[in-house]
Amino acid sequence: MPNALTSPFKKMNKQISENISFGEEPLYSSADGTTEVLHPFSTATKVGEKNLIAENIHRQQKAYKNFWPYGEVSLYSSSTAKNNIALWPILCEEGVGVHVKSARELRWVFTHDLPSKKIVVNARDLSNQLIQKCIHKNITMTVKDIHQAERISVLAKALGKTAIIRLQFNLGLIRPEMSPNISERFSRLISFFTKKETNGHANDLLKTGTQILTLANIKLNGFHVYCDENQKTRCLEKYMAVLALLISKLSKAWHGYQPKELILQGRFFNFRPVTSTGFFCECKVFNIETFAQLLLAKFRNTLIREKVKLQGIALVISYDHAKTNSVSHLKPRHQEKLS
After folding, report:
1. CA-CA distances (angstroms) from residue 305 to 22, 198, 248, 293?
2. H or E element: which one contains 148?
3. What pLDDT was estimated at residue 90?
4. What pLDDT, on the 0 to 100 scale, is given for residue 293?
5. Averaged pLDDT in 10-residue chunks for the chain of 339 residues
6. CATH architecture, domain defined by 52-338
7. What is the rounded distance in angstroms from the CA atom of residue 227 to the CA atom of residue 114?
8. Which residues pair with 130 in a beta bridge?
9. What is the separation, in whole angstroms, between the first and last Cα of the chain?
């Protein structure tokens, strides 16, 4: 298998190959072994087959695109894939973005000239210098509150540039407040009257976004949606309907604001094939096509019903680099029924 990667990944591939003592041998092989710890990150790296990874990426992108034809659909690496540094060249070569969680990782990414639109980075832990570098490179930064946005605004003004940001929120916290499920709304109402909760996350988000939109040298590009709750098949459509209702509420409150980008991050959004066909199995998603339909069909239809303009909204979904897109590990008779 050839080792050459298109620029700028030749340099990256050479550095990684030397670090794992593969010399001039192909970086990606069929072996399912584990290499020694790599520099500069202290994580063990598994080596996967390049063609299988590329095929997996293409199939996931196609599945999501079938239900979201309104804008670009792309993937970005979750923590599992990101920690496997040997996969970065092929992930980037196939258009998968990189989720950068620390200043150290961001400096490493800068040395390899990755496309700016493929970098997902949180501004919280970045120094002023790194934030200004992100502004120079037109890298969109994720913020969680008005204070982070104000800091970026000041730095962007000093540079005479406009910084691009996205607003992050936790769907798991929003869901009980806006759920179409009557029981969840009733539970929320009881909590309010018993004063167990003093504020609403949806209202806080609305207020934060309103303040951000008034900042100078700041462009609010979209939303970074996080949800790390356990994924249950019966919850997928319900959660996504809540997300659609929230986007509609924010759009109306912000005088027709339309996000240009929507990032879905967390294990709730990661496709994982079913591990059991038992009656009590909570996850019954058998292939990526079924998962894409559950994740996006009702979400899209709810947005259309709420009259939110969808054209031009880019969808970015976290990718767990699983080596399969369907239930290949089940018994053959189950595969025939489910795949």
Report:
1. 55, 31, 10, 17
2. helix 146-159
3. 76
4. 92
5. 45 41 34 38 48 84 94 80 62 82 81 81 90 94 96 96 96 72 52 53 91 96 91 83 93 94 90 60 70 93 94 90 53 44
6. Alpha-Beta Barrel (3.20)
7. 27
8. none
9. 30
Structure tokens at 195: 């004063």
Amino acid at 327: V
Question: What is the rounded distance in angstroms from the CA atom of residue 23 to the CA atom of residue 3?
Answer: 11
Query: Amino acid letter at 262?
Result: L
Q: What is the DSSP letter of 36?
A: P
Q: Nearest to residue 175, comparing CAs of 201, 210, 145?
A: 201
Residue 80, pLDDT score:
53
Token digits for 321?
A: 């680099």
Question: Residue 143: which of 123, 171, 162, 161 has the closest Cα?
Answer: 123
Distances in whole angstroms, Cα of residue 243 to Cα of each of 182, 257, 276: 17, 16, 29
Q: How far is CA 68 from CA 84, 278, 309, in A?
A: 29, 32, 13
Cα 184 from Cα 195, distance rounded (Å): 16
C-alpha to C-alpha distance for 18 and 21, rounded to whole angstroms: 5
- Rounded CA gap, 7 and 273, in Å? 34
Dist CA 3 CA 231 (whole Å): 37
- Domain limits of the chain? 52-338
The encoded tokens of residue 207 equal: 């207020």
The pair of three-digit structure tokens given for residue 85, joined into one six-digit string: 């540094």
Taking the model in full, what pTM does it have?
Answer: 0.77
